[in-house]
Specification:
Elements: E1 2-8, E2 11-16, H1 25-32, H2 39-56, E3 66-73, H3 80-96, E4 99-100, E5 103-111, H4 116-128, E6 133-135, H5 140-153, E7 157-159, H6 166-170, E8 174-176, H7 181-195
Parallel strand pairs: 3-5, 3-6, 6-7, 7-8
Antiparallel strand pairs: 1-2, 4-5
Helix pairs in contact: 4-5
């Protein structure tokens, strides 16, 4: 599991937390925040992390509490087939971990219908359900539409496959777990040079 946040166009902070025990969660979350952020950005990053920790790891809360995860995805329309794979991954994780630290994990859905106009309604409908965290959307354009509303609602949101850097660059409450578009050329170039030993390429 990798937790990433693009702070600006050329800074990506990533922390591999797969092998770390739960007992070290404070250390993990605090290390996600870089030390060179402007004061206001650092404060907002800490607020996001505090909300996630409170939802999943704060054992002082009632064990009967429910953690609600909002699923913002194109469940119909042109992008629904690709989005279905994201949704299946979320639902598999939910099946394996239906509760966390004694809290019931609940999924609530909103279909942006693979449509930029429907996306605005879908994200507002989802926010109205007051989820603790939002996951999605497949398709960067739908996340860009949602970003402003997510910022206003101050709900930490994780984009799983979005590669557009503007999503996390422009919206403080959006995080990512995927590389950005600009990484692809760099990675391909290094592969050609380092793995293949080639120094020229045809376009």
């Amino acid at each position: 599991c990798f937790i990433s946040d693009t702070i600006d166009s050329d800074v990506i902070v990533t922390k591999d937390v797969t092998s770390l025990p739960i007992i070290e969660v404070d250390e993990v979350w605090s290390s996600v925040i870089p030390t060179n952020l402007p004061e206001n950005r650092e404060a907002r990053s800490k607020e996001n992390i505090a909300r996630i920790k409170e939802a999943f790891f704060d054992t002082k809360k009632s064990s009967a509490a429910t953690v609600t995860i909002g699923i913002y995805e194109p469940m119909s329309g042109a992008d629904s087939e690709e989005a279905a794979e994201e949704i299946q991954g979320i639902e598999l994780a939910h099946e394996v971990y239906p509760n966390v630290n004694g809290r019931i994990v609940e999924l609530t859905y909103s279909d942006n219908a693979s449509d930029i106009y429907a996306a605005e309604t879908a994200i507002n409908d989802l926010i109205a359900k007051n989820p603790d965290i939002i996951l999605g959307s497949y398709g960067s354009v739908y996340s860009l539409i949602a970003g402003e509303y997510i910022n206003e609602a101050k709900i930490p949101t994780i984009a799983m496959t979005n590669m557009n850097p503007l999503i996390t660059q422009n919206y403080d409450y959006y995080f990512r777990v995927c590389y950005v578009d600009s990484d692809q050329g760099d990675i391909l170039g290094r592969y050609i040079l380092e793995a293949k030993g080639e120094t020229t390429a045809g376009i």
